[in-house]
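Q: Could you fold this chain for me?
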Amino acid sequence: MTDLLWILIALPLTGAFINIVFGKRIGEPLAGWLGFVLVGSAWAIAVVPTLGLLTGSGTPETIYLFSWIPVVGADAAILWDPLSALLTMIVTGVGALIHLYSIGYMHGDERFARFFGYLNLFIASMLILVLASNYAVMFIGWELVGLSSYLLISFWFKKPSAAAAGKKAFIVNRIGDWGFLVALMIIFASFGTFDFGVIFTTAPVVLTTGAATAITLLLFLGATGKSAQIPLYIWLPDAMEGPTPVSALIHAATMVTAGVFMMARSAVLFELAPISGVTIAVIGGATALLAAVIAVTQMDIKKVLAYSTISQLGYMVMGVGVGAYSAGVFHLSTHAFFKALLFLGAGSVIHGMADEQDMRKMGGLRKAMPVTFVTMTVGWLAISGIFPFSGFWSKDEILAATFQRGGPWLILWAVGILAALLTAFYMTRLYVLTFLGKPRWAEGTEPHESPWTMTLPLAVLAVAAVIFGVFNTPARLAFEHFLEPSFALISHAEPLDLPLAAVLALFALVVAIGGIAWSWFRYNRDELPVEEGGFWQRGLNGFAVDDLYGRVIVEPGKKVCEWFADSVDPKGIDGVSHGIAQGVRTAGDGLKTLQSGQVRSYAGGIAIGAVVLILAVLALGGGF
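A: Sure. Below is the predicted structure, expressed as structure tokens.
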């Protein structure tokens, strides 16, 4: 089956081409079903070779497709190992469910087919990224993921806010991509190739600590863009302007996981740069806490989940920073299920509430939307870290790995615990304000359950959010063992003693329950608490980080660009080009007098030229 893995990319690419070029003729709902079937087929094809890796009947291998740029070790080839297999299953599995959900959610949209074309392109781009066997091919997928996100975030481009959000995501990610690109230049200068196999096996010998630090910090800059970490997280909350299935796809299975995956794939390089590890872990912890604080204050149900994603990504990045690569990838995997569930559940609420997104205008929806209510309950408990849901196992593994480092790392562990407390608080706030209490709907609103194409994916994701965590527990590290071949070249810390791991998990569980109880008693009442004043307003505005960037970077940048446009461009660039043209024109005007048309003038000119030529020859030959 591994020889057919190229089909995984070809199937969604085919769907993208058909729906974008011929979508209007295909129409609704066939265009949606086509996109769903092709992505679902890619998932089905990936199952067999993935099971081979899982059972030990298959081994990691590189599948050569065709020669691309062999001189730089950038052949088109697929690296099939447990890490790429895991991400392939997540991207195609969760992606297929989101495609199915979108058939109902996007019903009646005038650009229905094009939407599914863009979704298919997103899936294909992410598969190129995770299946790449070298950094050059990975970078192609990396950039295509950025393009796809731009197309989908700004899908409803007639809304100025959606168009602006798409541009913001694109531009902010260009900053991170610059870091990634410079890192690739240093990698090629150091190794003479982009091939993973050569780079990872020779890195301990080839790279100095300084070079490894430079490469990894630049790679991390790329990851801060894609995976929305400080300082480049600001695009992700605005990305909510896209249709809700886009939010689910970006937050769960595609774009934001790209940065964490890239760092996990490059684990050998990060192991050689301890300063980078500390920097990454601190930024991950700070991002987790800052985003959690902002999420507490949000009133838009999608904005709460957006900042929640930034916070959870902070946990993953913190795991990578402390060297717990398997734990970071494990949380990436569980997060894919419960965050897709939460976003699609929020989309179901918005669909049933006639596009209302303000939680203050909801309440009492559990009876009107029973399936959405039950599945969202699972997502709420999973992300809050309640036993035995998946988020409990994956989050606690990162916290335990941080605690194990001891010393100053205990401060970072405490930051993670505080973020966990706030996570339980703001997710309970979302859950209570949306589904419990008395209805606060606007007059004329008639909430209703979503169609089966939307509720079936919710049910499947809810089951995954319940059971996936048991694949990696302190007593049975099955998930970690599955990933061992992908991290075979790095050293691994000894696991915590089971009693200590149990104590840490119990403490984190008590903290999460405390956060739930705190939020429950605050919001589960007839009258909502007043949330006004400095903290709430500043938090609602994201603590004015966007405004700060606007004053310090955007406005000065605009003024510089305006100066170039008004002065340098017309007087400099245009002046030089116009000056050259005018010089040529003047020279032509002067020389055209030689073209008199009189034979005597031409004969005289020839004679004079001949005399000059003879004199020149004699002078050079020493005849005088």
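A (continued): The mean pLDDT is 91.
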